[in-house]
Design a protein that fits this description.
Distance between the termini: 47 Å
Structural class: alpha/beta
Largest sheet: 5 strands, parallel
Number of strands: 7
Number of helices: 15
Oligomer: single chain
Shape: globular
Strand content: 5-15%
Helix content: 55-70%
Length: 383
């Protein structure tokens, strides 16, 4: 972090100790069950907490409180976001409270840290990763600006309402895909906003978003052609790509086997023909040379694989309903182990109210201004 402030250096050891204790406690207490089959934790998780902290702009680390908030934020993103209910989330918040008090001497309540947001979407040019000290209304205004730009840029318009939960999920997706080798697993039922928020997050990050088009004869060969196309694009342009893939697009389970390989190793066995491999070597050679790699065939191919792992960000959107999700977690473990998980709960009443209010307020010709509040509440109940 390039910390020069002595008071911040002193607490770095305390933060790591607290992080290790939290990880060991979670591994022992939050065990996988049939309804929590994705509760599998490994050493990648604490390492991703540190990786997330390293995204911060050192100039933004003004004092002990900001560094502590950064550590809490990254811990919550890596561990708490996958928890499925308020009971587990409250337990985790209590664990954070305990460790912050024990190791840092700070007596913080859960309300002091449970809604912390760090992000890189305040700046348009340099995009520093920083603490987002904005009100809910100010944040909604910033996201609305991005949404309007998206709708001007692309023919497919999106009409989104940025209530509190949507803001947090959008910030989480942006955080995941800005990291090298950052892949996301968004778990929620259909209609929870995973697709729309992923598209907007990719736009905010200046990434090209790719998604497959399912046709009648779309199968394994066509899917692999799409994967090859994305990888070739990375070799040619060395620019990030976000690949959105939903469980409704799984025509064959072999699709998941390929994705499992990509998030784990960055390659799919026997994907490229001999002539395509030579083309990749030709496209990658200048970038590999600039990175100081030897001008050898194997070294260039290895550099291509590392580029794919760093620049191809896979966003998976799965539903937890039914047996299929549990079976896929078992059969393709890298989908859980190598992705950062964000669990989408059902939208709360204030979210439903916000959406209804947006649409009723736009109906100026109906003369319903005096009963808009009642209509919004009723719509939430019906939903």
């Amino acid at each position: 972090l390039q910390i020069t402030e002595p008071s911040l250096k002193d607490i770095s050891t305390s933060l790591i100790k607290a992080g290790v204790e939290i990880y060991l406690r979670i591994v022992n207490d939050l065990l996988p069950t049939p309804s929590k089959s994705h509760y599998t934790f490994n050493l990648r998780d604490p390492s991703k907490v540190v990786q997330g902290m390293l995204m911060i702009d050192p100039a933004g680390l003004k004092d002990k409180e900001v560094l502590t908030r950064l550590w809490i934020h990254e811990s919550c993103r890596q561990f708490r976001d996958r928890l499925i209910d308020d009971t587990d989330r409250s337990w985790f918040n209590g664990l954070i409270q305990e460790k912050v008090k024990t190791h840092l001497g700070l007596d913080w309540a859960a309300d002091d840290f449970k809604e912390i947001i760090f992000g890189d979407f305040l700046g348009r040019n340099e995009k520093p990763y920083q603490l987002i000290d904005k009100s809910q209304e100010e944040l909604a205004s910033i996201f609305d600006e991005y949404l309007q730009e998206h709708n001007i840029t692309f023919p497919s318009r999106m009409n989104l309402v940025f209530f509190k939960d949507a803001q947090h999920h959008l910030a989480r997706i942006c955080r995941i895909i800005r990291q090298p080798r950052g892949n996301a697993l968004l778990i929620g039922v259909g209609g929870s906003g995973r697709n729309s928020l992923s598209r907007l997050a990719a736009f905010m990050s200046d990434y090209h978003l790719f998604s497959i088009e399912i046709a009648k004869k779309y199968g394994t060969a066509e899917f692999r052609e799409d994967i090859k196309s994305m990888m070739m694009n990375i070799a040619k342009n060395q620019k990030p790509i976000a690949f959105f893939f939903s469980d409704t697009q799984i025509v064959k389970e072999s699709f998941l086997e390929d994705i499992n390989n990509i998030v784990n190793t960055g390659e799919v066995p026997n994907l490229f023909a001999v002539d395509e491999t030579e083309q990749i070597i030709g496209l990658t050679r200048p970038a590999a040379k600039a990175a100081g790699k030897p001008d050898a065939r194997d070294a260039i191919l290895q550099y291509f694989v590392s580029m794919v792992r760093d620049l191809l960000h896979i966003i998976l959107a799965f539903s937890p309903v039914g047996e299929k999700f549990r079976a896929r977690c078992r059969q393709f473990p890298s989908i859980v182990n190598c992705c950062t998980i964000d669990w989408f709960n059902a939208w709360p009443p204030d979210a439903l109210y916000s959406v209804a209010n947006r649409f009723y307020s736009e109906q100026k010709d109906l003369g319903i201004e005096s009963v808009t509040d009642q209509l919004c509440k009723m719509s939430g109940e019906i939903h």
